[in-house]
Write a structure and sequence with these properties.
about 375 residues; FAD/NAD(P)-binding domain; 20 strands; 8-stranded mixed beta sheet; 9-stranded mixed beta sheet; D-Amino Acid Oxidase, Chain A, domain 2; binds flavin-adenine dinucleotide
């Protein structure tokens, strides 16, 4: 049985944990990270090639400073590692003027003075003829948006952390965390670790490691679909933007073709509840694929129905779909980010910095009030 002490331990090395590990290591701290799967694996929530990053955040204006910091950090992490992580394609967002998406985007842009273009369906159809917009929809185009290469981001963070002295253990599952006077103890399938501070970033498994979150997280199964598409109209190279549509059938989003698989599309709304994330059903559900094909035929009519790939991922939903970033109510040495609710990856670079600040007692410049777990106490 190994027993090792680190000043800081990061539990879970997916999107959030990899960033926290790097942010602690780059400060010269004695830190290690633990995961049960290899880095950039496909068993959690941070895989599937791409993730949207967008600035005028319809979910709430409080996210905007965090995403702006993430834009800076993704650029810096890519440069430090020597690899491109972010591709700016712009994003088209379309929906009813009294829906959730369009008013939310406009509110965030107004509060933070962000540049957007607002178009009618007709104007947008002329400019992007490969899309088809509903007549009564408002269309917004934001240039400062695009996609991140998700697995590349996770591995870049971990490798940079290692280059800065962090240790990585991705051969063991964490069984439990015990608070003791001398340190926080972390018991794993291979031994025991102790640390002065622990950052928990265990995604869909947050409630298993932190019982105080067990009734706050609902895990949803989320499929991803790729279809063959004309590279002259639907590829990044041809200038096709990312897209997010609020429709009567749900909210759908996607990415222009950027590899052999063609265009990627998924539904943001919906999803079946997952009892045990380790036993996630990975089989193709034909009905789910029909729903995205229906969306494509209405709004991206030139994309074919020839499927090239398929994957399954998980959303870890909080009760109000906003993040939970806090210290444990039982032990202030334990810090966590959980319940990223299917929209967290773009922020992980900044969340790593926020968690490292919290763990080291450094003041954060961000207003994190929206993300306190205590909002659910009343
Ligand atoms: C299909 C899909 C599309 C998405 N699209 C977007 C998007 O376009 N833009 C965006 O910003 N966000 C998007 N998201 C959300 C985003 O990807 C997630 O919010 C984010 O990746 C979550 O990161 P995480 O670190 O919390 O979880 P994970 O990346 O899953 O990391 C958790 C890690 O903890 C480890 N772990 C957990 N428990 C244990 C244990 N007991 N022992 C050892 N290891 C453990 C796991 O193995 C895993 O590596 C999407 C998510 C999905 C599923």
């Amino acid at each position: 049985m190994i027993k090792q002490h680190f000043d800081y331990l990061v539990l879970g090395l997916g999107g959030v944990g990899s960033a926290a590990l790097y942010q602690l290591a780059r400060r010269g701290l004695h830190v290690a990270g633990i995961d049960r799967f290899p880095i950039a694996h496909d068993r959690g929530s941070s895989h599937g090639h791409t993730r949207l990053i967008r600035q005028s955040y319809f979910e709430h204006p409080s996210y905007v400073p965090l995403v702006q910091r993430s834009f800076e950090l993704w650029k810096q992490v890519g440069a430090d590692h020597g690899r491109d992580l972010y591709y700016e394609t712009g994003i088209l967002e379309a929906g009813p003027v009294d829906g959730e998406l369009v008013p939310g985007v406009l509110a965030s842009a107004a509060e933070h003075g962000l540049e957007l273009e607002q178009l009618t369906a007709d104007e947008a159809s002329q400019r992007w003829p490969q899309f088809s917009f509903q007549d009564d929809h408002t269309v917004i185009y934001e240039q400062r948006a695009g996609f991140l290469l998700v697995e590349q981001c996770v591995s870049a963070h971990v490798e940079l952390a290692q280059w800065n002295g962090a240790e990585v253990f991705c051969d063991q599952s964490i069984d439990r965390i015990e608070s003791k006077d001398d340190a926080v103890h972390v018991l794993t399938s291979r031994g025991e670790f102790t640390a002065d501070r622990v950052v928990v970033a265990s995604g869909a498994w947050a409630g298993e490691l932190l019982p105080e979150l067990s009734d706050k997280i609902v895990v949803l199964r989320k499929p991803l679909h790729w279809f063959e598409a004309d590279v002259n109209r639907y590829s990044r190279k041809s200038g096709c933007p990312c897209f997010l549509f609020e429709t009567e059938a749900g909210c759908f989003y996607g990415f222009p073709s950027s590899d052999w698989r063609g265009l990627k599309v998924a539904q943001h709304t919906g999803g079946a509840e997952v009892d045990d994330p380790l036993l996630l059903d990975r089989d193709l559900d034909v009905q789910e694929r029909e729903q995205v094909l229906e969306f494509l035929s209405c709004h991206l009519p030139g994309v074919t129905d020839r499927a090239t790939d398929y994957g399954v991922c998980m959303y870890a939903m909080s009760p109000d779909s906003h993040f939970m970033i806090d210290t444990s109510k039982d032990d202030s040495r334990i810090i966590y980010a959980a319940g990223l609710s299917g929209h967290g990856f773009k922020f992980t670079a900044a969340l790593g910095e926020v968690l490292a600040d919290m763990a080291t007692g450094t003041d954060s410049s961000f207003d994190l009030a929206l993300f306190k777990r205590s909002r659910f106490d009343t």
